[in-house]
Write a structure and sequence with these properties.
This protein is mostly helical. 35% of the residues lie in helices and 6% in strands.
């Protein structure tokens, strides 16, 4: 039995996160699938691409429902303070946010990607990506 948590998949744009977890089986026998997406789509084509991916994930979850252990716990998420520790804390606003704290919050929500911080050097960007990646599990 496994619990599924899906992070950004290679066919999806940077910055989008999908968190799936089977919740529980209701009294009527229905399975509850929890999903959170925090992302602004560029255009209709990108939205359709993601909806198609989402359909495949839902269908795969349904097909494997007997081997997925029900869980009422949500997927763990990145900690804003841990993200902030990895940022340069210059509040430069190049990312489009007023402060590094707001950028860290948007990154934790999956709205922004690590590449959004122009002040990070290559090593800092690698560390931030590694931290964010630790919360994702490609399937």
């Amino acid at each position: 039995m496994q619990r599924r948590k899906c992070g950004p998949h290679s066919e999806l744009p940077d910055g989008i996160r999908q968190w799936f977890s089977t919740g529980h089986q209701t009294a009527e026998g229905a399975y509850v699938l929890q999903l959170k997406i925090g992302y602004t789509f560029k255009d209709e084509a990108e939205a359709r691409k993601i909806v198609d991916w989402l359909k495949r994930e839902i269908n795969a979850t349904w097909e494997n429902r007997d081997s997925i252990a029900p869980s009422t716990k949500g997927a763990s998420r990145p900690m804003i303070i841990e993200i902030l520790k990895l940022l340069p804390k210059t509040n430069c606003r190049d990312c489009g946010e007023p402060t590094c704290m707001v950028f860290a919050t948007r990154l934790a929500e999956g709205v922004k990607g690590p590449e959004g911080c122009s002040e990070l050097d290559e090593i800092g960007l690698t560390r931030l990506k590694s931290y964010i990646r630790s919360f994702q599990m490609d399937i």
